[in-house]
Amino acid sequence: MGTKLDINHELKTVGWSNVVSGLLGGYTGSYIFGQTIFTCRSKTNSRVVGVCVILAEIAIVVVPVSVMSYVPRFFLAATLFFVALDLMLEWLVLAYRKMCIREWAVVWLSFLAINLVSLDLGMLIGIGVAALNFMLSYIRVPIVDDDTDTSAELELLEGTVQTGKHAGVAHFEFCGYLFFGSAVQILETVQKGVYVRKSNGTKQSSSTVNYLDLQLSHESSFLPNRDVPVQCLDGTPAPDDASPTQYVVMDFTRVAGMDATAARGAFLILKKYCNNHAIPVVFVNVRPDIRALLLKNSIANTTDFFPTAESAIASYVS
């Protein structure tokens, strides 16, 4: 919907709803998955949808007759069939455009295992296949770098960052293999290092979560002192001497690989958050396979890639 999801608020909503339902003798539940899909597909960004659902359910309870007995069964069957067909088309057929062949094969094997064996055992088989795919991807990561100029280039880049000549640029350097376990840490770290102007309607998060340190290193933003009220991208308070970020450089020089979950679960979300604040995001020294993954998931355009961080910063300055 173009806005940041407050996961803690959503969990509290579901929790308190189940408490009230239990006290009144009702069933436990969560969000209506089918209704969520309909709302998303129709691009309806309004609370009116939820109000209509609430009023309809209250009417069903209050009316003395069984309303569901008057609803044609083929209508309910067609609705379920539409939801199933839409999900299968998106994640079994069109998903190959967003992930590599091995990850697409994992999705298909998990689907077949669940339908041919059972739900619980099929999910375990899918987890095992996913773990095997991760190990195959990880062992292909090169452990020896034959590029003799890399260290010199990194030292020169670190010196440029520390000079602070180019105001408003936040530089992040990632390393290792970025996978689904890295997505949360990437989100946390980058959002803490990007500063945006504080708006009156922005809610600040009062709780922080400590996650295990994963493969991510952060180059501090070199921002000048300006008399502008700012906050971190996640809504938490920014340092006293921080000023708004105008340009984000994501350096993949030391990244050996990345899966589709990390791409969509971290970088796609970060790109949308930065777009909401009109902050350009560029990518530096990206491997061909990672570049293809970023392009497939509409995370970057062909003009967002640069060979070095210096050239990316130079394009911003110019």
TrEMBL record:
Subcellular location: Membrane
Lineage top rank: taxon: Eukaryota
Family annotation (PROSITE patterns): STAS
GO cellular component: membrane
SUPFAM superfamilies: SpoIIaa-like
Chain ranges passing through the membrane: 48-68, 74-94, 106-136
Domain STAS: 159-316
Main location: membrane
Keyword terms, alphabetized: Membrane, Transmembrane, Transmembrane helix
CDD domains in UniProt: STAS_SulP_like_sulfate_transporter
Coiled-coil segments on the chain, per record: none
Membrane topology value: Multi-pass membrane protein
InterPro entries in alphabetical order: Membrane-Transporter-like, SLC26A/SulP_dom, STAS_dom, STAS_dom_sf
Pfam families found in the cross-reference section: STAS, Sulfate_transp
Gene3D superfamilies, per database record: STAS domain
Protein name as catalogued: STAS domain-containing protein
